[in-house]
TrEMBL record:
Catalyzes the phosphorylation of pantothenate (Pan), the first step in CoA biosynthesis. A monovalent cation. Ammonium or potassium. Homodimer. Belongs to the type III pantothenate kinase family. It comes from Pseudorhodobacter turbinis. It catalyses: (R)-pantothenate + ATP = (R)-4'-phosphopantothenate + ADP + H(+). The gene is coaX. K(+) binds at D129. Keywords: ATP-binding, Coenzyme A biosynthesis, Cytoplasm, Kinase, Metal-binding, Nucleotide-binding, Potassium, Transferase. This is Type III pantothenate kinase. ATP binds at D6, C7, G8, N9, T10, N11, T12, V13, T132. Substrate binds at G107, S108, D109, R110, T184. SUPFAM superfamilies: Actin-like ATPase domain. The keyword ATP-binding applies.
Amino acid sequence: MLMAVDCGNTNTVFSIWNGAEFIATWRCSTDHKRTADEYYVWLTTLMTLHKMDVHISEVIISSTVPRVVFNLRVLTDRYFSCRPLVVGKPDCALPVAPRVDMGTTVGSDRLVNTVSGFDRHGGDLILVDFGTATTFDVVDQDGAYIGGVIAPGVNLSLAALSSATAALPHVDVTHPAQTIGKNTVACMQSGVYWGYIGLVEGICRQIRAEHIRPMKVIATGGLAPLFQQGTEIFDAIEDDLTMHGLVLINELNKDRDTA
Ligand SMILES: Nc1ncnc2c1ncn2[C@@H]1O[C@H](COP(=O)(O)OP(=O)(O)OP(=O)(O)O)[C@@H](O)[C@H]1O
Ligand SMILES: CC(C)(CO)[C@@H](O)C(=O)NCCC(=O)O
Ligand SMILES: [K+]
């Protein structure tokens, strides 16, 4: 079985696959201090809890936090007796090379999303990912990542707003019924919700104006369904975009090994 690990700046998601068959997914907070033994105890506890008979023989990792990869490598080596494939490393092939400035490192989550989006929707895409950062990945006709946009994430903006002010509390993002807030919390929620709707619509409009062919917009990330309620801009929402991409990249590299 394959264990695919998507390590973001806030959360790390583990998902287990038997070929193309999805088995399970588990999430923990990202912490570079978490050791291989800690991961293993946590993983086996969940497997036992769900009465699962899981035998991991392959591991693929995408990490936006370089320091975390060390302990994930130790986990893979010590407990699953294999070498992980790490997206972004030279020995991990991608279907199409990114076309960006020389020397630029593209976040591995964005590379993985690109592979996944192209597989499901073809080329000429804008992938919007609502994670720690809100990213826009632009996918060309041939499936190449050709750049994009990085904006502060929704929860990060709310945290900045409350931490930089004396009178503003911590609030969660919601879809406010009205734009005009009648209290502090409602005002803040309106600012963030409608602010991000404007940001997403505006950036997609400008990207489309810079691209020569029509483009689809695909959204992913935990907050995508919430934002879909306030805009018509998304052609589709996919909660498993990154995981699907990891499975595809793993298959591609297996075929390459046996070729
Ligand atoms: N069903 C949901 N409803 C509301 N919020 C959600 C839901 N699922 C996830 N979230 C929240 O959405 C946010 C984004 O989640 P997501 O997993 O896409 O990214 P993340 O883990 O925060 O970021 P990163 O991938 O950069 O670590 C998180 O703060 C999470 O708590
Ligand atoms: C932008 C984030 C933080 C989004 O997770 C990640 O993709 C990243 O660290 N990227 C590196 C820079 C880039 O993608 O251009
Ligand atoms: K940083």
